[in-house]
Every structure is written in structure tokens, then in C-alpha cells.
């Protein structure tokens, strides 16, 4: 099977989380996001419901220790088909000033343009979400390891639509999941290719539990829209 994002040939597995996921940012105060260029962040459309999205923090392993780079958001562009029911859950944020990309702790992710992904593909994300339902955002960045599931695995979930969503579940032995505040975090494969944006979790209105199905918005489904807005 392919290596995980955390075990690439260039970044050792014991490196700080933000060096293993240099594209990951804190978006506003309650969401994650992904650097796709020095001036653009991709996150979840529903993050505008919980956060003003006024700024991002990049390049830090801890949001409370004074490290990292802060940038204000100049413009928000939500996907035209976005609905609160989690369809087309994408938001582009243009920054007022470019981020200082350094390929170590601040790096742009490559955008996926594949129409589908194979079941079993090992993927991962990093963010600052809470570790239990109803908890507080964490200051330390954490990483979660998952695997792409067949669309059929999520078909039991009424909200799931394969046209714009990606079905995943945590890999053994931890069976990682996602929780409040992980929304908008970018899902990447072993090469750092951005394949999804964290959107919702099975039964996430009531609990955050290991082994739950985690649904990401499928980046390959909106590659043309991203290109149209950002010229990337």
C-alpha cells in the first residue's frame, strides 16, 4: 500500500506535525484550511456559519506560543452550489498579503484533479479541532490517519452524495476520526496532493467517536471552479 503522508522520503515521521502538514492552517478561530498558493486558502463553505473567517494562522505547531504567520482575509468566495446540508462544501479565501512559502512549515498543496479515488488509498489531515464532542479547539496541531472507502460504505448516510463527497474512515489501530473544529482541514495523500476538505462526520451532531465515517468534500469535483476563481 502507499505510504502515509507522515512517512515521506523528505520529512521524517517524527518531525513536528506542522512540518509533515505544511499546507495546514487555522482558519478563523474554529476551522482548518489548506494553503493552495501564497494568497489563497481552501476551506469548507460551512465554516462561514461559525467563524468570521477574518484571518488565518500558518506555519505553527501551536497557536498559543506566538509562532507562525498571521494573515488577514481580503475576500471570501463560496461555491455557488453550496448548501447548509453539506453539498458542495467549499470556500476560497483570498489573503490580503501573500504567505512566505518556505517549503518546510508553509507550503502550498497540489490540487487533485482526478474524478475518483481508489478505495484503500491512505490519506491524512491535520488540524486544531477538539478531542471530544462539544469541547474546545486545541492549540496544538494534531494529525489523523484515514483511508478512502468505497462510496457504498457511506451510502447508508442520507446526506452522502458521491458527486461531490469523499467517504473515509480511520485506519487501524487508532481508527482516527474528526471532531468539532476540524471542518475545512485538508485531506492529502502520500504525495501531499489535496484530495478533500473536511465537511462532516457520521452522527457528528451528537458525538465524535473513533471509527466513524468521515466525509470530505471532493476537491477533484471542483477543480475547474478553483481554477476559474484563483487562476491556479
TrEMBL record:
<keyword id="KW-0378">Hydrolase</keyword>
<dbReference type="InterPro" id="IPR043504">
    <property type="entry name" value="Peptidase_S1_PA_chymotrypsin"/>
</dbReference>
<dbReference type="GO" id="GO:0006508">
    <property type="term" value="P:proteolysis"/>
</dbReference>
<keyword id="KW-1015">Disulfide bond</keyword>
<dbReference type="InterPro" id="IPR001254">
    <property type="entry name" value="Trypsin_dom"/>
</dbReference>
<dbReference type="InterPro" id="IPR009003">
    <property type="entry name" value="Peptidase_S1_PA"/>
</dbReference>
<dbReference type="GO" id="GO:0004252">
    <property type="term" value="F:serine-type endopeptidase activity"/>
</dbReference>
<protein>
    <submittedName>
        <fullName>Scolexin B</fullName>
    </submittedName>
</protein>
<dbReference type="InterPro" id="IPR018114">
    <property type="entry name" value="TRYPSIN_HIS"/>
</dbReference>
<dbReference type="InterPro" id="IPR001314">
    <property type="entry name" value="Peptidase_S1A"/>
</dbReference>
<feature type="domain" description="Peptidase S1">
    <location>
        <begin position="21"/>
        <end position="231"/>
    </location>
</feature>
<dbReference type="InterPro" id="IPR050430">
    <property type="entry name" value="Peptidase_S1"/>
</dbReference>
<comment type="similarity">
    <text>Belongs to the peptidase S1 family.</text>
</comment>
<keyword id="KW-0720">Serine protease</keyword>
<keyword id="KW-0645">Protease</keyword>
<dbReference type="Pfam" id="PF00089">
    <property type="entry name" value="Trypsin"/>
</dbReference>
Amino acid at each position: 500500500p502507499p505510504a502515509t503522508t507522515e512517512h515521506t522520503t523528505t520529512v521524517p515521521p517524527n518531525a513536528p506535525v506542522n512540518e509533515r502538514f505544511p499546507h495546514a492552517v487555522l482558519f478563523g478561530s474554529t476551522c482548518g484550511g489548506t494553503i493552495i498558493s501564497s494568497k489563497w486558502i481552501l476551506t469548507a463553505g460551512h465554516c462561514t456559519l461559525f467563524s468570521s473567517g477574518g484571518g488565518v494562522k500558518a506555519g505553527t505547531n501551536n497557536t498559543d506560543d506566538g509562532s507562525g504567520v498571521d494573515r488577514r482575509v481580503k475576500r471570501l468566495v463560496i461555491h455557488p452550489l453550496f448548501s447548509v446540508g453539506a453539498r458542495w462544501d467549499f470556500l476560497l479565501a483570498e489573503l490580503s498579503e501573500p504567505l512566505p512559502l518556505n517549503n518546510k512549515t508553509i507550503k502550498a498543496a497540489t490540487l487533485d484533479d482526478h474524478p475518483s479515488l481508489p478505495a484503500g488509498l491512505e490519506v491524512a489531515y491535520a488540524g486544531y479541532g477538539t478531542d471530544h464532542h462539544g469541547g474546545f479547539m486545541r492549540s496544538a496541531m494534531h494529525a489523523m490517519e484515514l483511508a478512502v472507502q468505497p462510496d457504498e460504505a457511506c451510502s447508508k448516510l442520507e446526506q452522502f452524495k458521491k458527486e461531490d463527497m469523499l467517504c473515509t474512515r480511520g485506519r487501524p489501530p487508532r481508527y482516527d476520526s474528526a471532531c468539532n473544529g476540524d471542518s475545512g482541514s485538508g485531506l492529502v495523500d502520500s504525495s501531499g496532493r489535496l484530495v478533500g476538505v473536511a465537511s462532516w462526520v457520521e452522527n457528528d451532531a451528537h458525538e465524535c467517536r473513533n471509527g466513524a465515517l468521515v466525509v470530505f468534500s471532493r476537491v477533484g469535483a471542483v477543480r475547474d471552479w478553483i481554477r476559474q476563481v484563483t487562476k491556479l
